[in-house]
């Protein structure tokens, strides 16, 4: 195998592995190849055991959403597997998964509701009227960043957002003409 062409590592570059305590080790191309392989004692890639997230969310919503609410979003998305658009984890369970307090989880959930990523439906037992875990419905589409949030992005991300939206508009116009 022609490693350099296959993986596009430039032999004219120097590559260093970052180690703890600000140390580093120089790597050659074969070292890079070994790093790309699955290490021993790793989990296999099992179908159905992944949660996908849109690059639009990661790039443009993340600076607005912040990491905490995003972590809640991803945990709920993970639990709404298959064709489900909802999950019903308890706040204490989400708190345990994220390593933060329950009040913080509630704040993160409220932020997701405010941003349009989540709808919360309270559930009660019809016989005892005791509250059950909430249903959390994920938005079936990704909200486009409103102008007020767009203006909060750093200039570089605003430019990337403009390019992305132009690409989407061009694709839509092209598909419309084809159909």
Commentary on this structure:
It is a single chain. The longest helix has 24 residues, at 155-178. The strands form two sheets. The protein has a three-stranded antiparallel sheet with strand order 3-5-4, with helices on one face. It has a two-stranded antiparallel sheet with strand order 1-2. The protein is 49% helix and 15% strand. It has 179 residues and is an alpha+beta fold.
Briefly characterize the structure.
A three-stranded antiparallel β-sheet has the order 3-5-4, covered by helices on one side. It has a two-stranded antiparallel ribbon with strand order 1-2.
Keywords:
single chain, 179 residues, alpha+beta, Arc Repressor Mutant, subunit A, 3-stranded antiparallel sheet, two-stranded antiparallel ribbon, 5 strands, 49% helix, extended, disordered N terminus
Q: Topology, please?
A:
Elements lengths: L2 H5 L7 E5 L3 E5 L1 H8 L18 H11 L1 H13 L6 E2 L3 H8 L3 H14 L2 E7 L6 E8 L8 H4 L4 H24 L1
Antiparallel strand pairs: 1-2, 3-5, 4-5
User: What is the average per-residue confidence, as pLDDT, rounded to a whole number?
Assistant: 86
Corresponding CATH architecture of one domain: Orthogonal Bundle
Beta strands, count: 5
What's the main sheet like?
A: 3 strands, antiparallel
* Rg on CA atoms, Å: 22 Å
CATH topology of one domain: Arc Repressor Mutant, subunit A
Considering DSSP H and I runs of 4 or more, what fraction of the residues is helical? 40-55%
CATH class of one domain: Mainly Alpha
Protein name: Helix-turn-helix domain-containing protein
InterPro entries: WH-like_DNA-bd_sf
Pfam family, one: HTH_36
Keywords: Plasmid
């Amino acid at each position: 195998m022609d490693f350099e062409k296959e993986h596009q590592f430039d032999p004219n570059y120097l590559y260093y592995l970052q180690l703890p305590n600000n140390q580093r080790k120089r790597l050659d191309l074969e070292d890079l190849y070994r790093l790309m392989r699955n290490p021993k004692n790793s989990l296999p890639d099992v179908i159905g055991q992944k949660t996908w997230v849109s690059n639009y969310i990661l790039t443009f919503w993340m600076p607005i959403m912040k990491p905490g609410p995003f972590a809640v979003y991803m945990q709920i998305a993970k639990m709404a597997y298959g064709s489900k658009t909802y999950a019903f984890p308890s706040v204490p369970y989400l708190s345990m998964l994220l390593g933060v307090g329950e009040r913080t989880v509630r704040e993160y959930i409220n932020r997701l509701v405010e941003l349009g990523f989540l709808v919360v439906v309270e559930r009660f037992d019809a016989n005892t009227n005791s509250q059950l875990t909430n249903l959390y419905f994920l938005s079936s589409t990704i909200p486009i960043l409103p102008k007020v949030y767009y203006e909060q992005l750093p200039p570089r991300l605003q430019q990337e957002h403009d390019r992305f939206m132009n690409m989407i508009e061009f694709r839509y116009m092209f598909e419309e003409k084809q159909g």
